[in-house]
Amino acid sequence: MNILILGSGGREHAFAWKLAQSPLCDALFVAPGNAGTAQVATNLPISYNDFPAVADAIRDKKIDLVIVGPEEPLVKGIVDYLHAQTGLSGLRIVGPDAKGAQLEGSKDFSKQFMLRYNIPTAASQTFTVDTLQEGLNYLESHALPIVIKADGLAAGKGVIIAETLAEAQIALRDMLDGQRFGEAGSKVVVEQFLRGIELSVFVLADGTGYKILPEAKDYKRIGDGDTGPNTGGMGAVSPVVFANKSFLQKVEDKVVKPTLAGLQKEGIIYKGFIFIGLMKVNSEPYVIEYNARMGDPETEVVLPRIQSDFAELMMAAADGTLDDVAIQVSSQTAVTTMLVSGGYPADYETGKLISDLERLEDVMAFHAGTLGKDGHVLTNGGRVLAITAQANSLENAVRKSQEAARMVQFDGKQYRKDIGLDLIRYSD
């Protein structure tokens, strides 16, 4: 097969790295890619939101299989667009259509979906600018803290956990009346705050069947000890020590199966990844959110643990034949530490020379925001590199990832020193 991956981050580099190992992969392309994907595939200078250019590249490169990495093109309907193009109706695509992508594209849709199909989640109500006063009144009667979510895509910044009533009122007004997130905040979901411990479960669906991939836990805040502002993710661990067999069976029975049954009942033929963000509350799973794609940096710990042919899995998802393939998962622990630019998640500079990548041994540096120029690798984003290590214990995987994170150099480098340490100390 000729395979095209859409995206430019660490998730897409991990996809490319895994697919390049498959004998089923004849030619591999990434649009637009980064300096890391260029090591294992051919980068195409195309925006993944430029649907006509993507369609032209598919024809030009005789692409058989497309894997859509980021959420934005999925929510905007790239799958529907490509299937409607002349000569592309039979194209294999891993990624949901626009209806399916609403699971991520609209917080209100996903909450209503969960309620319809009795999927455990936090209590919530949705408000618009026309019901702003009603929303403010609702806040006054609500327990604190409280979660305020912009309905649409807001680049990971549309969720605020308000510790005080005043903070919650400001957030609601900013989103609805102040249009802080534009169209994404035209509806706002006000949600109960759940106390527990977070993890993510990933499902690969083919329209009817599914495979559950390795679970992961990520670390969102910039600073050690979960301090400071939220980021796109500062690291991840897989497997997750508190997700025992009994708990994961509850996730499958109470969340995964009713989610997929609900999609089918609504006439959504969902072929792609479903990222289920969960809170474990007193041994019970509650859904915080759905994403219509793999997480980042979770992909960088999930894929290294998958021992099966990844191209075969992708083809089966697109063809509706996942029941015919097995998924083999390594028992090793994977830990990734994200190296980020100085100033991130606020303003940061790019174009910094990255050195000492060649010194890394027995770890994988997945490129998240890099650029190849004149034989050098430069920083080209807030999140720069995901340093992934595997080992036979969590302690050893943490040590290897952290040692490698110290080794790689660029001006302004930041990273968390405590990725996975809470799980080493964890007791139920």
Please, could you describe this protein's structure?
It is built from 13 helices and 22 strands. The chain is α+β, with helices and mostly antiparallel strands. Among the domains are: 96 residues, 3-Layer(aba) Sandwich (Rossmann fold); 70 residues, Dna Ligase, domain 1, CATH 3.30.1490.20. Strands 3-2-1-4-5 form a 5-stranded parallel sheet. Strands 12-15-18-22-19 form a 5-stranded antiparallel sheet. A hairpin with a 2-residue loop joins strand 20 and strand 21. Helix 5 crosses helix 6 and helix 7 packs antiparallel against helix 8. The longest helix is centred in the middle third of the chain and has 21 residues. The protein is globular. The mean pLDDT is 95. It comes from Spirosoma radiotolerans. It catalyses: 5-phospho-beta-D-ribosylamine + glycine + ATP = N(1)-(5-phospho-beta-D-ribosyl)glycinamide + ADP + phosphate + H(+). GO terms for molecular function: ATP binding; metal ion binding; phosphoribosylamine-glycine ligase activity. InterPro entries: ATP-grasp, ATP_grasp_subdomain_1, PreATP-grasp_dom_sf, PRibGlycinamid_synth_ATP-grasp, PRibGlycinamide_synth, PRibGlycinamide_synth_C-dom, PRibGlycinamide_synth_C_sf, PRibGlycinamide_synth_N. Belongs to the GARS family.
With strands numbered from the N-terminus, the spatial order across the biggest sheet is 3-2-1-4-5
Helicity, in percent?
25-40%
Tell me the major beta sheet.
5 strands, parallel
* Residue-averaged pLDDT: 95
The CA-CA distance between the termini, in Å, is 46 Å
Q: By helix and strand content, what is the structural category?
A: alpha+beta
Strand runs, count: 22
- What gross morphology would you assign? globular
- Rg, nearest Å: 21 Å
